[in-house]
Amino acid sequence: MNEGIVAENLVKSFGDPPQMILKDISMEIEVGEFVALIGKSGSGKSTLLYILSGLDEPTSGKVFLNGLDLTSIDSKTIHKLRNESLGFVFQFHYLLSELTAFENITMPARKQNQLKKAEEYAMHLLKEFSLLHCKNKLPSQMSGGEQQRVAIARALIQRPKFLFADEPTGNLDTANGDNVMEMFKKINKEEGTTILFVTHDLDYAKAAKKRVHMQDGEIYKID
To answer: What pTM does this model have?
Structure first.
């Protein structure tokens, strides 16, 4: 079984009568790939991302992540997988308002009782992302770009094998958006992290090594 991400005949529908959001999607993402999911609003790209990452379940079909069938494992196993191997970045940063940047970044490690181990890497990430001046700031004291960079650092603190990002540059200006994409490229190259991100920005999609084009719940082209 492929060690990356394998989707087999994924279907997702909502409502009654059912509205098809994803129509029989099959695809593979190999370990270490940097992939952009692109398409117009409503094409199903975010829904696909959530299903491939185990945050949502398909109506039918299967998803394998490193050989594990996400559609049949129990919630405890999937929770462990999320904590240890997966990183998530969303369009909104979802930082905890009462914690500093450093505390937000180290939160996943604290949950796993690995804080000591993570503190050094957290400092490295703060430096990498030009955030040292934000170490003790609360989210309300940071700019939008700083908040999003903290959120990305938090997603990376456990050195995930897979990073899933849904419109990570959506709320950022061009300079900060460019920064985020540069970080992704660097993480992919230096850490070998498999990255799958959703974007409707074709310029950012060009940063990826592979682009999956979606339209009306189907993949119509991969380049």
So the answer is: 0.91
